[in-house]
Design a protein that fits this description.
The protein has 93 residues and is of the alpha+beta class. The protein has one domain: Glutaredoxin, CATH 3.40.30. Helices cover 44% and strands 27% of the residues. The chain has 4 helices and 4 strands. The protein has a 4-stranded mixed beta sheet with strand order 2-1-3-4, covered by helices on one side. Strand 3 (66-69) and strand 4 (72-76) form a beta hairpin. It is elongated and about 40 Å long.
Length: 93
């Protein structure tokens, strides 16, 4: 079984981070209703507060929210639901 790890890097009070969470939740909900799209893959989501890491703050302070898929930057600022869904379906195959 394939596991796809999503990591959302943001900070409290960030409206773009809140928007990103809603987009991600919507895409995950949509994919959950279509099991064939993921071929049995499991998607995990970790939320990381960049303020708890000096390294993340230095690296991403101008780009949050940042969404990583399996540790690689997928997108930042605004998460496009179509692009995310396509990326996740591609990883699952």
């Amino acid at each position: 079984m394939t596991t796809i790890a999503l990591t959302l890097i943001g900070k409290p009070g960030c409206h773009l981070c809140e928007d990103a969470e809603l987009v991600i939740a919507g895409v995950l909900e949509e994919l959950a209703t279509n099991a064939a799209a993921l071929g049995g893959a499991v998607i995990t989501l970790e939320r990381v507060n960049m303020l708890e890491s000096e390294e993340l703050t230095d690296r991403y302070s101008e780009e949050i929210p940042v969404l990583l898929i399996d540790g690689k930057v997928h997108n930042y600022w605004r998460i496009d639901p179509v692009r995310l869904r396509t990326a996740l379906e591609g990883k699952a195959k």
